[in-house]
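re: ur question from yesterday

yeah so i grabbed the chain u mentioned. its 135 aa long if i counted rite. heres the sequnce exactly as i have it in my notes:
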Amino acid sequence: MSDPNAPTRFHEDKATFTVRGSDAPDIETGVAAIRNVLATLPIRPGVYRMLDARGDVLYVGKARALKNRVTNYTQVDRLSKRLQRMVAQTRSMMIVTTNNEAEALLLEAQLIKRYRPAYNVLLRDDKSFPFILLR
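ran it thru and got these structure tokens back, copy pasting raw so excuse formatting
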């Protein structure tokens, strides 16, 4: 038997969220975490993972030049609101260098399928496949 006082349906817009301490999204803290990684990044192809305070993967991305790509996340005024929220939640990053851009593309697709990050939307479903055009 169900509780008569229990809500019949969850309404996200009526929910209250409380975030405290280092878990609280903060754009300056996120940018600082990214800048810490920038000092050691090579200008090589690879894949990066942005992690939140719990270590959950927020986003998986690939780059032809890791240092150049990750630097873009520190220019907050040029980012969309969605990316600003992602940077605000970022507390650390994991980097994997690859031999070429094709390897980075394949690794990115594998990691997105494995972790299903909240901020990756294009490669999450199993209906689309990354491809490389050979000329």
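noticed a couple things. Residues 6-21 have pLDDT under 50 and may be disordered. also The CA atoms of residues 28 and 88 lie 7 Å apart.
anyway ttyl
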